[in-house]
Amino acid sequence: MTGVNNLTVEKIRVGNSNIRKPILVSCVAKGLLPYHGLGSGIKRAQEKWQAIDFPMTTVHRHSQRQPVEELDFIRSNPAVSYDELADMTPKDRTTVMRNIGRLKDVGILRRVGSKKTGRWEVIE
């Protein structure tokens, strides 16, 4: 059975991985989260619990990548407003503002200049 990005449970068990949470990887790169090796979580879990089972689960990418979608639009237009982001995504303004707040909280995004004439800066 194929899982996320053509990974099977067997491939994941031996350490194959794909970056599915780029925001977390970015936080690790900035030293905000501990680093144990990309793709090492399942192998580390297996070492502690040999009888662990990995049922196949459907993960809807939309819910995983919410803030990343906003980042893509901000990279292409740093002067974009909350309202414009809401128009470009299937989200309302409040959700966009919450996602932007999360990105700012973890140090991935910051506002430069005023609310009206400023721009977004993606910190990488």
Question: Would you give an account of this structure?
Answer:
It comes from Pelobacter propionicus (strain DSM 2379 / NBRC 103807 / OttBd1). This is Putative transcriptional regulator. This protein is mainly α. It has two domains: 4-48, no CATH class; 61-122, Orthogonal Bundle (Arc Repressor Mutant, subunit A). The protein has helices spanning 9-13, 22-29, 41-48, 61-64, 66-76, 82-88, 93-105; strands at 109-112, 119-122. Mean pLDDT is 76; it is low at 60-66.
Note the topology.
Layout lengths: L8 H5 L8 H8 L11 H8 L12 H4 L1 H11 L5 H7 L4 H13 L3 E4 L6 E4 L2
Antiparallel strand pairs: 1-2
Helix pairs in contact: 5-7, 6-7
By CATH, the architecture of the largest domain is named Orthogonal Bundle
Number of helices: 7
CATH topology of the largest domain: Arc Repressor Mutant, subunit A
CATH H-level superfamily of the largest domain:
Winged helix-like DNA-binding domain superfamily/Winged helix DNA-binding domain
Order of helices and strands: HHHHHHHEE
Instruction: Determine the strand fraction and express it as a percent band.
Output: 5-15%
- Total beta strands: 2
Q: What is the CA–CA distance across the termini?
A: 36 Å
Average pLDDT works out at 76
The main β sheet shows up as: 2 strands, antiparallel
Write down the Rg.
18 Å
Low-confidence stretches: 60-66
Helix content: 40-55%
Number of domains: 2
Shape label: elongated
Protein name: Putative transcriptional regulator
Organism: Pelobacter propionicus (strain DSM 2379 / NBRC 103807 / OttBd1)
